[in-house]
Design a protein that fits this description.
Blueprint lengths: L1 E3 L4 E5 H6 L13 H21 L3 E14 L2 E15 L2 E10 L7 H7 L1 H14 L4 E8 L5 E5 L5 H26 L14 H13 L5 E4 L6 H15 L4 E5 L3 H15 L13 E3 L3 H4 L18 H4 L7 H4 L7 H11 L3 H9 L4 E4 L2 H4 L5 H4 L9 E5 L5 H8 L2 E4 H13 L4 H15 L9 H20 L4 H4 L1 H19 L4 E4 L5 E6 L3 H8 L4 E6 L5 H8 L5 E4 L9 E6 L13 H14 L5 E5 L2 H8 L5 E3 L6 H13 L3 E5 L3 H5 L9 E4 L9 H9 L5 H22 L9 E5 L7 H4 L11 E2 L2 H11 L1
């Protein structure tokens, strides 16, 4: 869809018009993706060949275009009619649609289940402008059985409904543009710190002249969120972009964005007359669910089945028509439950008319989740400013979305469920074959080429079956349905983009396909957007960061923070080697060093960061003041644990990269003494070995940086950055491993953590700690 609000014109395909909806969309024939399209092509070709063999005077894939005026807008449409058949001086327009339901079926059921198909044919008839017979030919996917339904006068109403929806959408988009032109907001910082104004000015210059992605590097506590939002709102008001997306991987970070935006834009006398910014925080689908069981099987969920029919009278359009509506997840759940419509459908509908979207990385970068953003009417990445916070986490998160694992027990569960549901024997047989393949898989660091091809062939057969065989997913339930649907999703990912992947078996009966480098997928996505700002405190080497995003040279904006100069007193302890092979030898010395650092803090708490839980646990046994973080807990429990141990003046043993290590930023300034027990290098395993091999063309040292050193040292920099978050805060830090003094590791420390101070023996440590006290 492309529209010009000034000219009051919109251009779209007939297919897009037939499915157009602001609210929920009804089911259109099940899952299957690319395989359904291929099956549709197969039956189209067979019916075409049949028409030719019968000597019909027919044209195929006939281009049609034209304009329809509706409520002050001109809708320009284009499409292709499957067949135009002429007989006895009369033309018949024929559209062919493949369905997985059993045929023949009652015509009223087909009209109810597939209204978009009838609207599409009515649109073709309207564009042709001639009185012609029109017929829909439904084809049962697995058998080829066909049923023909003639277009009737009442079907013109379906076309009118869709044209009205388009006109309503355009009216609301026009209103949104006018709102943005009058947008008013407060500065992010009433009294800016040193460096904030300069960073904001440099970011403005970078955005206005951007030919590539921008990297904003600023330390934890600097105020990146405010700087980014101030720039985004300014660009929206100026008309440079239609919409801004703010994505980050942590829910706490998203809540911070929501709160900062609220403080900048909530009504007040200081803002005068102006329009509020329309912003929406997208929570995950499970949080929206009001069903007794979280499931998205339409026919089994009373809040999804028939939602498109209940929507017009539900009153839920108030969430995008009226200002001041509460948008918290509790309000959405209450409204959806009352209207018997899934609350997630409220989010889908309202997003279209909001200026700022806030959510997780997945809504932009995950093939399985990005449809929530990309399928919204009028969403145009080229007219959108994308802001990616905590961008150092992006590469690993996107690689995870392109990684999949398949277990024999899951395949057997699907087999049993399909048999119990009396599914097609052909589909059951394909799943039985897949289960047998997985059951035969021994643990292995990599599949052979022949084994990989066998797995690919079977997955392709399963994906084809999802689009071919009719299945009662409501009877199967959400768990089994999800296991089935993930197969075509995975095969479509394989077809969509070429990524380096490791096919391997981490244990018997399991096949894993692990993405080794998601850079091509990240780069392809970033290039779609009109503007991109990636923000992080710890990018590592900028050239390596840019390579990991495959977005070419980046404009680097590094925020100045004079108040951090001299805030860290850092020493490197050369007495110990914390590598996995040698750390056990130094456990006692590490414990003594922790106790000495804790004593020098004179009753104040200290933080001790470890590369693994097991390592922390081993040292904690010999440190009386140690408090070892729990293995698992929610955010509230994490904060309570941290706060309690800080108040008690304990030595907090934290694992680098964990929620606890990152949670210390909520209490910045409370810890003035810290110790890092070695770099947090990733575990050596088949995946990391395969990644090392994939990066071999960069050279041995550069490959080792990408796979091991950079991720490990980023965690160190992240942890230390949380200790000094505001002017006046200081921290004494001991880097407890000789590797920190090696050039390959030292170069990856942030400049403020590099130190010429070396601890060679116990007396050096005592002298350094004594000087600090």
């Amino acid at each position: 869809m492309r529209f010009d609000l000034d000219q009051r014109r919109v251009r779209m395909s007939v297919g897009d018009l037939s499915d157009f909806s602001i609210g929920p969309i009804g089911a259109v024939g099940g899952s299957g993706g690319i395989w359904r399209a291929q099956l549709g092509t197969r039956w189209h070709n067979e019916l075409r060949a049949q028409a030719v063999s019968e000597g019909a005077d027919a044209e195929f894939e006939v281009a049609v275009e034209g304009e329809i005026a509706r409520k002050g807008w001109v809708v320009s449409l284009s499409g292709r009619i499957d067949q135009i058949v002429r007989s006895a001086g009369q033309s018949v327009l024929r559209e062919i649609k493949t369905v997985t339901r059993a045929l023949p079926a009652r015509e009223d059921e087909l009209r109810s289940d597939y209204p978009g198909y009838f609207a599409q044919l009515a649109a073709y008839a309207a564009l042709r402008g001639a009185r012609e017979k029109c017929e829909l030919v439904f084809v049962e996917a697995d058998t080829g059985l066909a049923q023909t339904v003639m277009l009737g006068p009442a079907d013109d109403g379906l076309l009118g409904e869709r044209l009205d929806r388009v006109a309503e959408f355009l009216d609301l988009r026009l209103r949104a543009r006018e709102r943005l032109r009058g947008l008013r907001f407060r500065p992010a910082f009433p009294s800016p710190r040193e460096g904030q104004e300069e960073a904001a000015a440099e970011l403005l210059s970078a955005v206005r002249g951007a030919q590539s992605a921008i990297l904003l590097e600023a330390p934890t506590g600097f105020g990146k969120t405010g700087v980014l939002l101030e720039r985004a709102l300014g660009e929206l008001r100026g008309g440079a972009f239609d919409r801004a997306l703010y994505v980050t991987g942590k829910s706490t970070g998203q809540l911070q964005v929501v709160e900062t935006l609220r403080m900048m834009t909530e009504a007040g006398a200081d803002l005068g007359e102006g329009a509020p910014v329309a912003a929406w925080h997208v929570r995950n689908k499970a949080e929206h669910c009001v069903n007794s069981v979280f499931q998205c099987v339409r026919e089994a969920c009373a809040y999804l089945d028939g939602a498109e029919k209940r929507w017009p009278q539900s009153g839920l359009s108030r969430f995008y028509l009226l200002d001041g509506q509460r948008k918290d997840i509790g309000s959405l759940r209450s409204a959806g439950s009352g209207a018997r419509i899934c609350p997630y459908e409220i989010t889908r509908a309202a997003l279209t008319f909001n200026d700022v979207w806030i959510g997780d990385y997945n809504y932009v970068f995950s093939p399985d989740s990005r449809g929530l953003f990309y399928d919204r009417p009028g969403f145009d990445p080229a007219r959108t400013l994308l802001m990616v916070d905590e961008a150092h986490n992006l590469a690993s998160r996107v690689a995870d979305t392109h990684s999949h694992s398949f277990a024999a027990e899951d395949a057997r569960t699907v087999c049993d469920a399909l048999r119990a549901a009396s599914a097609s024997p052909g589909f059951v047989a394909r799943w039985a074959s897949w289960a047998a393949l997985l059951e035969s898989r021994p643990r292995a660091p990599a599949l052979t080429d022949a084994e990989q091809q066998d797995a690919r062939d079977q997955l392709a057969a399963l994906a084809e079956g999802v689009g071919t065989f009719p299945v009662d997913y409501a009877e199967l339930g959400p768990e089994v349905s999800g296991l089935i649907w993930r197969i075509p999703s995975f095969t479509e990912q394989l077809e969509a983009i070429e990524l380096p992947r490791l096919w391997w078996s981490p244990r018997d009966g399991v096949l894993s396909v692990t993405c080794l480098d998601a850079a091509p997928a990240i780069g392809a996505t970033l290039r779609e957007f009109g503007g991109v700002i990636m923000a992080t405190a710890t990018p590592g080497p900028v050239d390596r960061f840019a390579e990991g995003c495959a977005c070419g040279p980046m404009r680097h904006v590094r925020a100045g923070t004079p108040w951090r100069d001299g805030a860290y007193d850092v020493a490197v302890d050369l007495r110990v080697d914390t590598t996995f092979q040698h750390r056990q030898r130094y456990i006692g010395l590490t414990a003594e060093t922790v106790s000495a650092l804790h004593a020098s803090a004179a009753g104040a708490p200290i933080a001790v960061f470890f590369p693994s839980f097991a390592y922390a646990e081993a040292v904690a046994r010999d440190v009386e003041a140690a408090s070892l973080q729990p293995r698992r807990s929610d955010l509230a429990s994490q904060n309570a644990w941290i706060a309690g141990n800080l108040d008690a003046g304990r030595a907090l043993f934290l694992v680098l990269g964990s929620g606890f290590a990152e949670g210390i930023d909520l209490l910045g300034g409370r810890v003035a003494h810290a110790m890092v027990v070695g770099p947090a290098l990733p575990e050596v395993n088949p995946v990391q070995r395969a990644r090392l091999s994939a990066f071999a063309p960069l050279g041995r040292d550069a490959a080792f940086d990408r796979v091991y050193r950079i991720p490990g040292m980023q965690k160190v920099n992240q942890a230390l950055g949380r200790l000094v978050r505001a002017p006046g805060q200081r921290a004494t830090v001991l880097l407890h491993c000789r590797r920190f003094a090696e050039p390959g590791y030292e170069k990856l420390l942030a400049p403020e953590y590099r130190s010429g101070r070396r601890i060679l023996e116990d007396d050096d440590l005592a002298a350094w700690l004594g000087a600090d006290s």
